[in-house]
Design brief:
By secondary structure, the protein is mostly beta strands. It contains one helix and 16 strands. It has a domain at 96-180: Beta Barrel (Thrombin, subunit H), CATH 2.40.10. The longest helix is centred in the N-terminal third of the chain and has 10 residues, at 2-11.
Length: 180
């Protein structure tokens, strides 16, 4: 199964843009690859492209499946797009970030999406497409973001090696972890 996917994927890898991001769906049936401004969703069982997602003006920097694999989020420049996996239709276009988004994370319940950009973590309500929180901690570039398994906390990778832990509901910075 994986060998079949890899052989088809490598044959199709002659595209002008290199693959910059890969992720598997949580059930392992799909894989998404980002190349340039496009995202391909592949069936792992046979290596066939199930969808080609094109809505970005620049290179896609992150792709993530929701925990139930019903949605996929893609990030480029100052936009985040959310797609219905079954129909390949864009369901939400999240705008309003002031600079390049670098990371995304679906909440475990699939109701919100966090996106990291230059100095802020935005939390988006996926039902409305509106930002419900802007988490700004100590100065530094936010490179990554991840929800805790229960959805109560967000971790943000800041600067060279720091991690900020946020209480999502209270929108409070709980701790900054430094390796020093």
């Amino acid at each position: 199964m994986i060998a079949s996917l890899l052989s088809v994927f490598l044959l199709g890898a002659q595209a002008a843009s290199p693959v910059r991001f890969l992720t598997f769906s949580h059930n392992g049936q799909l894989m998404a690859s980002a190349s340039g401004s496009s995202v391909r969703v592949w069936a792992v069982s046979n290596g066939v492209v199930q969808a080609l997602l094109n809505a970005h003006d620049g290179p896609v920097s992150a792709v993530e499946f929701s925990l139930d694999d019903s949605m996929i989020a893609t990030v480029s420049s100052s936009t985040v797009h959310v797609w219905n996996v079954a129909t390949s239709e864009q369901t939400i276009w999240l705008q309003g970030q002031s600079s390049h988004a670098s990371s995304i994370s679906f909440s475990p319940d699939g109701k919100t999406l966090a996106s990291a950009n230059y100095s802020t973590v935005h939390v988006w309500d996926l039902a409305t497409g509106h930002s419900v929180a802007e988490l700004k901690g100590d100065s530094g570039t936010v490179f990554s973001v991840a929800y805790s398994p229960d959805g109560r906390y967000l971790a943000a990778g800041i600067g060279a090696a720091s991690v900020q832990i946020w209480d999502v509901a209270g929108q409070r910075l709980l701790a900054t972890l430094n390796p020093h």
